[in-house]
Every structure is written in C-alpha cells, then in structure tokens.
Amino acid sequence: MLIDTHAHVNFKAFNADYADVLNRAMKENIWTINVGSQMETSEQAVKIANEFKEGVYALVGFHPLHVMNHMDEEKPENFDPKRLEELLQDKKTVGIGETGLDFFRLPKDRENEIMKMQKQVFAQHLELAKQYDYPVTVHCRDERDEAIAYREILEVLDDYKDVKAVIHCFSEDWEIAEKYLKAGLMISFTGICTFRKKAEAVQDVAKRIPLDRLMLETDCPYLSPEPVRGKTNEPVYVEYVAKKVAELKGITFEEVAEQTTKNAKEFFKF
Ligand SMILES: [Zn+2]
User: Fold this and answer.
1) How many Å lie between the centroid of ligand 1 and the Cα of residue 35?
2) I want to staple 58 with a disulfide (CB 3.0 to 4.6 A). Which of 49, 136, 143, 236 is the partner?
3) Considering its fold, how many domains does the chain have in total?
C-alpha cells in the first residue's frame, strides 16, 4: 500500500475523470489526499473525499501564490479563515494545506508587502492547526541564492512548536533538509527525485534522510515522474516515486511502502 499525501485531483484538470483517477489508484491500493489551494479547491477536495468511503481524504488551505491575488483590490480572491474553519469540521478533512511561503519571482515593487501578507496568512493557518490539532502541509519556494523563504518558514513555525508540519515537494539540498529535520518537520518527495536532470541534490537527501521522516506524493497534475514525464500526473504514479527512493536507499520497495504509509497514517491520523 502507498499513500499519495499531496495530490490535486480536486483541480479543474480532473473535472471530467476525477472518480476514475481515484478509483484507479484505489485498485492499486494507493490512497489519496487531495489538497486545496484556495477556497473553491478546498471545498472540492472535501466534496470528493465524501464521495468515497475510505482511501480519499482532504486538506484545506490557501496557497501562498494566491495571496497576491487576495491583495488585488479590483478582483480580490477570497481568503476566508471562517470558511476554512468550517471545512475543518468535516470528517474527511485530515489537515491544513497547502500554506506556506512562495517568494518565487515576486513583482519587485511589491515584494515586501506580499511577503509580509504571505507570512500573515501562513500564521493564520498555523493558528487554526494549533486550535484544532491538525497537521499542516507546507509549501516553500524561493529562487534566490540567499534563500529567505526557508529561513522564514522555520521562523514562523518556531512560534507553533506543537503543530506537526511536513515540507511538501522537497526540492532542495541536504543542508536545508537537515534544518527542517532538526526542527522536527517531516519531508515529502515528489517525482522530482526521479528526474534525470537537476535532481542530484534531492537524490542525495533521499539517500540520507531517515525513512521514518519521509512521506511520498505526486503533486499531480504537475511533476509527472520518470518514466511517465509528459503525461498528466495522477496518484497511481506515486509508485514510481517510491521505487526511486528504494533504489536510492538500496532497500526494497516494500520497506519504503510500509514505512512511508505508516508515517502518513500517523501524521494525518487516519
Ligand atoms: Zn500542491
């Protein structure tokens, strides 16, 4: 059994075939957690999870990339913590996400203002997580050499020591991984670790990371792993991520499947 701990079968790309996609995964004994990125997709994640008896769950949250739109005066995108709180009451909601910081290519003239608002929205998610004892899936991206987002993620999380968190779609090097692990966080891998180019740093982390700190995900419809790159990604392909981790660690696929599934079940409490 495997758990795709971060999928977006709740996104438009799957409107026509989400049930088929999820059933295909279930048939392979792969469970899926669909993750919201704004209010509508969070609602959709919860709705879809409730159409399945077991094996499909939801996370609800507001992605940092949408925070800028939220600040748009003419056409603001709605971040609604009250509505999030309502969605947290659903029995199929197993956590909060995705939230975090994304400082990738921000408009230079509004950089500080946007970063500040992202931190504020991230903290609001953590406040809810603390209040309701939910784990949090954290998104972090920053293109600068002097990676500010990573430091700030840890800084914000430091005020919420009781909140369990996972850094999703980890794509950095061991130096940053070590900092996250020391802070008590889990790390989650996507298909990036299977890529033939620019994957050395992540593959090095895969070799070194203790297996009990690792979870697996697709982040579908994005980031299709080898050997299905170019196709639309879906939960069933999380198997390729597991296989690659096993190969890198020099252990069996079964060991990776068993431990990462256990990690996910403990983390999300189901
Ligand atoms: Zn995602």
Assistant:
1) 7
2) 49
3) 1
